[in-house]
């Protein structure tokens, strides 16, 4: 005899296991829950499912927008990914087609435009550009979020004007030093003399110290006519004999004094004050109102205002979507089939549909991306148009990627719940629970699912957009490389620069400029100021050609007495020197402004280890110094670990080994190639100091031909030339090249070669 299938099964479980009544079957006696069969419920359930799907789409979309378009970190990430700051200096500001704009901007500055454009990173340092840009990004995102009612973009130009003023002092200082015949300029004294001379002219007195100038009769007549043209016509005849007579004998001072009260008409200081006031007027007190200039140039901000009308409502839209979505899911649960596990089916497909809608939305945006941006104005330089286009594409790609990742959360959860609802047989653990226990278990699962969806679509886009991604030496990939796996552009004799007026310099820009240009290793020489009797001995060890040695030695009798302190010099300090501690402070400031950079110093030490340690303490570098393991074969940390620990300055010595634990002898840890190459074709990779099989590898890559060879530097610093030699040396020595040491690092593209080496290396 067959047994009843439900025999021995509790009544409540029998009810849950009973199949739903088929349409047209006899009605069962009325009992609790029959309201689920009401007609209005049948109409309301599809509506609730659609509402749930729409709410999921809204949550995912709003969460993506809040973590990308409305987050200032998103924009800085895009700028970093596209190397916007480097491209601004290397492509846009030096574009010949941008010259009309830069010429207009520089027209009223007290420095020739060519001087400013050649010193762009001094006038407008990358750190300043980043700070100014971040300020404007914050203003725009705040406006879009509704934090402010007006779009106020106002740039503080005070740091830029201060840098221009410093550059003007340096430029004028060079001119004055030549006029004064002094090695060191006394700019304040020169300014006082100029003011006194102009004051004398304004008062009709003959200024002192003006030279006599030989003029032909015709030239004297022309100059007289020019000077007298500024004098009232009624007084010209009376002054003409005095002016012409003075000029015929070359007495410019007397001629100027005669017309001075009419030409100058005031003190010299008044002109400086008027110039300062004019500069402040042009910049509106040191601030630049960007919005006014954009609108006057035809670039209206109406699009931002329209966007704000939408974006500042996202907060309450998000809240509304959460409330409606939760209510819709709750309704689907309560009105679902008697078997509670099957109630998850409608909920799961609603979530999956919401995720699918979100993916379709962001997929369509990416597909139609090409038609979303207008053409750049024809007046823009091509380099600027290309930069803006790349930024737009990168921003859109990051945005849509974040949206697609956010869509995966509800899609995956929904499919999982739908699959779970199809399970026919309840797991043994679930069968052991009471009906009430199973109800609470399913309710808890639904609550966890809803929370996961809401939080997922809110926070996952922030992860996908990569706003917190760590950059090391300008690259995310480099963070994964160990210190001994990465390559670094190194500048040979970094302190010997044209900027600091060294005799026979080996670099152009100063050390800060070299760091800005991509150098991440500095090869420097430390010394104390030599006595005359030490010159000859030092010159024997120098790289100067014999005629250069004779020239420097000939300056000994004219040189100033020895100067106290510690210096960075190339062979002899009288041939050029910069203070050691001050230079270290500059390096510290640069590292503070660039928290993702790791820098190495390799010191040809002409001072003791104790003196070196003292200089680093005075410069405030102790907190940044990395201490290598005492075992040269120990594993180095990754650049990412060094950046996170803020131990980003590695210091080696050519001779010393301590006493500070961070100050190690380079040749215990590293090896090198030869460095005395007289022609590019002479370069080879044979072992030199340090022998073989060391973890660090220094490739000396410069030509010394009667000193540093600028002409050869342009050739050997070419990207392909550097890459070919580096790969040859790596194959010959069995180690990756770490330090590529070059002269005149601003010539060629050695930095590009180093970047290519790092990109090809695997952690």
UniProtKB/TrEMBL annotation:
Pfam families: PI-PLC_X (PF26146). SUPFAM superfamilies: PLC-like phosphodiesterases (SSF51695). The chain crosses the membrane at residues 40-62, 315-334, 346-365, 399-420, 440-462. Residues 1-33 are annotated as: Disordered. Keywords: Membrane, Transmembrane, Transmembrane helix. The keyword rRNA-binding does not apply. The keyword Transmembrane applies. This is Integral membrane protein.
């Amino acid at each position: 005899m067959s047994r009843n299938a439900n025999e021995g099964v509790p009544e409540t479980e029998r009810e849950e296991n009973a199949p739903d009544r088929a349409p047209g079957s006899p009605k069962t006696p009325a009992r609790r829950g029959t309201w689920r069969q009401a007609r209005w419920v049948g109409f309301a359930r599809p509506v609730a499912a659609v509402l749930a799907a729409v709410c999921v789409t809204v949550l995912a979309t709003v969460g993506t927008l809040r973590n990308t378009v409305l987050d200032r970190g998103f924009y800085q990430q895009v700028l970093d990914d596209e190397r916007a700051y480097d491209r601004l200096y290397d492509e846009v500001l030096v574009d010949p087609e941008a010259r009309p704009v830069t010429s207009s901007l520089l027209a009223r500055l007290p420095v020739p435009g060519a001087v400013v454009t050649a010193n762009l990173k001094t006038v407008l340092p990358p750190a300043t550009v980043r700070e100014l840009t971040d300020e404007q990004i914050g203003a725009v995102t705040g406006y879009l979020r509704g934090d402010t009612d007006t779009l106020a973009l106002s740039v503080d130009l005070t740091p830029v004007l201060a840098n221009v003023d410093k550059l003007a002092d340096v430029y004028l200082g060079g001119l004055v030093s030549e006029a004064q015949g002094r090695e060191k300029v006394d700019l304040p004294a020169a300014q006082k003399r100029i003011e006194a001379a102009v004051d004398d002219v304004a008062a009709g007195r003959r200024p002192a110290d003006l030279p006599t100038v030989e003029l032909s009769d015709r030239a004297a007549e022309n100059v007289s006519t020019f000077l007298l043209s500024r004098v009232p016509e009624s007084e010209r005849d009376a002054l003409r004999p005095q002016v012409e007579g003075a000029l015929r004998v070359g007495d410019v001072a007397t001629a100027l004094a005669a017309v001075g009260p009419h030409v100058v008409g005031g003190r010299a200081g008044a002109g400086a004050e008027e110039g300062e006031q004019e500069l402040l007027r042009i910049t509106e007190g040191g601030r630049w109102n960007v919005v006014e200039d954009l609108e006057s140039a035809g670039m209206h901000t109406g699009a931002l205002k329209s966007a704000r009308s939408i974006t500042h409502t996202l907060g309450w839209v998000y809240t509304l979507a959460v409330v409606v979505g939760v209510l819709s899911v709750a309704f689907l649960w309560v009105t679902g089939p008697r078997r509670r596990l099957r109630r998850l089916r409608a909920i799961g497909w609603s979530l999956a549909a919401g995720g699918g809608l979100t993916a379709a939305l962001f997929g369509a945006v990416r597909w139609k991306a090409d038609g979303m941006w207008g053409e750049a104005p024809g007046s823009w330089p091509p380099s600027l148009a290309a930069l803006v286009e790349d930024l737009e594409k990168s921003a859109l790609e990051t945005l849509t990627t974040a949206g697609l990742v956010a869509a995966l959360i509800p899609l995956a959860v929904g499919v999982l719940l739908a699959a779970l609802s199809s399970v026919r047989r309840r797991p043994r653990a679930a069968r052991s629970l009471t009906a009430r226990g199973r109800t609470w278990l399913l309710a808890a699962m639904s609550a966890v699912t809803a929370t996961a969806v809401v939080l997922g679509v809110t926070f996952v886009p922030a992860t996908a957009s990569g706003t917190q991604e760590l950059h090391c030496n300008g690259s995310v990939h480099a963070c994964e490389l160990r210190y001994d796996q990465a390559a670094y552009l190194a500048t040979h004799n970094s302190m010997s620069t044209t900027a600091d007026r060294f005799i026979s310099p080996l670099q152009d820009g100063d050390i800060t400029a070299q760091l800005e240009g991509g150098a991440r290793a500095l090869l420097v020489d430390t010394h104390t100021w030599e006595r005359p009797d030490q010159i000859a001995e030092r010159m024997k060890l120098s790289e100067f050609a014999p005629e250069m040695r004779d020239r420097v030695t000939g300056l000994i009798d004219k040189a100033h007495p020895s100067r106290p302190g510690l210096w960075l010099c190339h062979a002899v300090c009288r041939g050029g020197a910069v203070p050691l501690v001050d230079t270290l402070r500059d390096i510290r400031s640069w590292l503070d402004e660039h928290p993702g950079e790791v820098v190495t110093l390799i010191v040809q030490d002409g001072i003791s280890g104790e003196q070196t340690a003292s200089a680093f303490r005075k410069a405030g570098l102790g907190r940044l110094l990395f201490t290598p393991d005492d075992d040269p074969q120990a594993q180095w940390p990754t650049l990412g670990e060094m950046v996170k620990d803020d131990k980003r300055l590695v210091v080696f010595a050519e001779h010393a080994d301590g006493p500070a634990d961070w100050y190690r002898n380079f040749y215990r840890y590293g090896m090198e190639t030869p460095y005395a190459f007289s022609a590019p074709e002479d370069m080879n990779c044979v072992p030199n100091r340090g022998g073989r099989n060391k973890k660090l590898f220094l490739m000396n890559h410069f030509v010394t031909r009667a000193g540093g060879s600028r002409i050869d530097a342009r050739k050997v610093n070419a990207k392909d030339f550097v890459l070919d030699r580096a790969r040859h040396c790596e194959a010959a020595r069995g180690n990756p090249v770490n330090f590529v040491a070059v002269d005149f690092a601003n010539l060629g593209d050695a930095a590009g070669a180093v970047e290519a080496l790092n990109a090809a290396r695997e952690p």
